[in-house]
Each structure stands twice: as structure tokens, then as C-alpha cells.
């Protein structure tokens, strides 16, 4: 009897030991998953490693990855310590463990790691076979098509861009700029950039920065003498050609309290003391709060501009003041005129995109609308390509699509953009075949315009926040005809430049990398 009892106890202990050593599936796979992540981080990755940069952890949703730890209400699982921690309500200021705080901490750590990676000198190419010498040899041997060569060269240039901080020269050097940049918009020659800065006591100030590219490969920035202040918010700006190309700036100001909104047409010479006697035409139009504006360069609608308002589009002649009003059913958040014909493209809060031909006289019903198509959320930006057969549109779901206007069908999607409720513009550079957009997560992303491939994700030099969303300009000739190609980024009160070639001189030192090529060398792609 005692022997039977001992034998049964031994079997029971064996079963208990097996039961104790058996771990849940997510615990068994976690260590292997962590080792796999370390191998990925330590190895040489291709450009696709930048396309996986997001502000939230999406590893649990990827196919083929182990299941994440079960989410328990009121607890947070730390994968490094392999245990749960209790979460307290977020309003408790003494509690460091809130879900929002942990997410911000994770995002900030990811941003810092990417910044360190960008600062690290790259001795090897990001992808096997991706170097200029080998690509050129393959092209001469006929092993690489022209379109593929252009795309890979752009990819190589984009991956080699390094951040350089620019010092803004000013006549009053005793008072450096401490106000955060809110918007920067370059003129057509990219010699001048109109800037809008938030000020501490409310409102904003605006002015013009002059850029000049030097033969030694450096870039100088000078702020114009005159800055103007307003207690109203600037909703939208664009350059206007009244007396000559980019002679004026069009501003949409939001009304506050008893001060109504207006649209101001300011001469660019107003911001410089070089010619104070003849500032040029200065106009202010009584137009209620405008969300967007656009200037028409087509001769058939010379000196006309449009403003997008709540449920209305107003087209105004800047010289005579004559207006045409188009009633619609939504707010117009984005506008752009075509160049070959006086056709205005509009993007609405409802997700509708439609065109208006200014040559058409009838405005009854909705018959005056040209092509019409929709996206799933509010449109924040529309950009027409040079051939005017294609249009780019971005919305508040983070979707960017390329539309063929001839068949009103989306023919390309650009993945990775992040937006939930912000007004974020698109930037297109067709000579280099690039599309750029700044996300609400403060990352600047660059895509190949032709195939939609995400080429680069650039983290912000400052921690993410509502007041630190970068504003960018990309140009093939930043600073005029002798200018330099690259990306200009304004974030907080700092200005940065990412050169698109190796000739840039930073403190007498070349940045190294690619050979400089003309901007039109890969125009065909």
C-alpha cells in the first residue's frame, strides 16, 4: 500500500513538473522574437528598414510574427522585463505609468535611435548593389533600363542626405529668432521663402528669408529687415504674380472677436528696406475666414485668385475687384490652379475633389463642376503634375493618392503617411521624381513619385509635439540658378538643410558622398 502511494506520488510530481515547465505560446516565442529583432537591428538592412518606421508598435499585426502578450485591463506588459505593471488613471500626476506616457516614451526613444542612425557615417550602401559606380557600369552595359537607373540614383541620393543646421543672418544680430516656425513657402525660383512664426503673446509675425547658393557649395540665409505682426491666425499663403513673377504674397487671415477675416495681397518689396518709396500694390479684400487660397497664372484669367471658404468658392480679380461665387455643400480646404487652362481644382472637407473651369459662365446647380471624385476623408492638399493629367491628393486618414484626371481613377498609392486631423500639405519635385509630406507624427517622408516606393523617413530634430511639426521645402535649385538641391526644414525656431549632393560645405568641410548631377539628368523618370 505504501509502495503504491509512493509510486503514485512520483507520477503526480512528474506531471506537475511538466505542467509547471509548460509556458504559454506568447511567452515561449517572446525570447526568440527578441533575439530576431536584435539580429535585424545589428545587420545591414536595405532601404525597406526605413519604411517600417511608425509611431506605434505594429509588430503584433504583422503576419508571421509571434503573438503579443495578452492585454490585461489596467496593466502594462514590459517586454524587456517580461512582466506586467499596474497602470493608474492618467489624471494622476504622481503616476509615471500611464498608457499615453508610455507611448510617448516609446516614440521618443525610437526618434532618438533614428537620429543617431542618421548621424552615423555609412561606409556601406543601404542595399547590396546600390552604389553609383556599379549602377553606372550596369547602365553603360545595357543591363539596367533608364527608368530603373534614375529611380535607384534618386534612392541613393535620398538615403545619403545629412542634416546641417543653418544660421539665419539678420541686420539685428543682438536678437536671435526664438519664435517657432509655423509655415514656410518658397517662391517659384526658390530664392525667397515666406515665413510665418508664432509669437509668445499670441498671434504671429511674418517676413521673407533670402537664400543664396555660393560657388563653393554653401548656402547662406538672410532675413529681410521688415517683419510684420498680426494678432490673427494665418490660415493659408501663396505667392502671387501681379506686376512680375512672384511680386506679391497672398495671405488668408482668420477673424477674431470683432475683427473680421480678410485676404491681404502684400508686395514682397514691403519686407525690405532697399526700396521703401515704391512698395507696390497693397490690397485687402473683405473675405470671411478662408481655409485656402490659390493664384492663377493662366493668361485667360490674369491676376485672378481664388479663396476656399465654408460652403463657397470665391474667385476674385485682384485689379478690378470683380468676384464670381460658387456655392457648394462643404468647406474647401485645398486649392490649386492649372497652368495650361484657367481650371481650379478644389479639395473639400467631405472628401470630394472637383474642378471649376472659369471660362464656363453658368453656375446653376452643380453643372459647373468639371471632373468629380472622392476620397474617404477631408482633403488637406491637392497638387497637379506638370502634364495636368494627374493630380495628387492627401486626406486626414493619411492616404495619399495619385489620380488620373482623364478617367478619374486612382492609379498610385503612397503608404506610410500619418495624419488624423491636421492641415498638412504635399510637396512635389518632378525633376527629381520625389514626393514629400510631413506627418502629424513629425516625421518627414519621401516617396518615389513614379512607383510609390517609400525612400526615406526623416525624424524631427526636436521631440514630437503640436508646436514642433516641421514645415519643409524641397528644391532642385535652392537659392536660385546657382543654388543647391536639397531639403529645407523649419522646426521650432531652428532651420536645417539636407543637401541632395556631396558638394555642400559645412564649416569648410564637404559632406562627402555622391557626385553632383544636373537636376534634369533624370527628368524622364
TrEMBL record:
<feature type="compositionally biased region" description="Polar residues">
    <location>
        <begin position="49"/>
        <end position="63"/>
    </location>
</feature>
<dbReference type="GO" id="GO:0080008">
    <property type="term" value="C:Cul4-RING E3 ubiquitin ligase complex"/>
</dbReference>
<keyword id="KW-0677">Repeat</keyword>
<dbReference type="InterPro" id="IPR052254">
    <property type="entry name" value="CUL4-DDB1_E3_ligase_receptor"/>
</dbReference>
<dbReference type="InterPro" id="IPR036322">
    <property type="entry name" value="WD40_repeat_dom_sf"/>
</dbReference>
<keyword id="KW-0853">WD repeat</keyword>
<feature type="compositionally biased region" description="Basic and acidic residues">
    <location>
        <begin position="22"/>
        <end position="40"/>
    </location>
</feature>
<protein>
    <recommendedName>
        <fullName>WD repeat domain 21</fullName>
    </recommendedName>
</protein>
<feature type="region of interest" description="Disordered">
    <location>
        <begin position="1"/>
        <end position="67"/>
    </location>
</feature>
<dbReference type="Pfam" id="PF23761">
    <property type="entry name" value="Beta-prop_DCAF4"/>
</dbReference>
<dbReference type="InterPro" id="IPR015943">
    <property type="entry name" value="WD40/YVTN_repeat-like_dom_sf"/>
</dbReference>
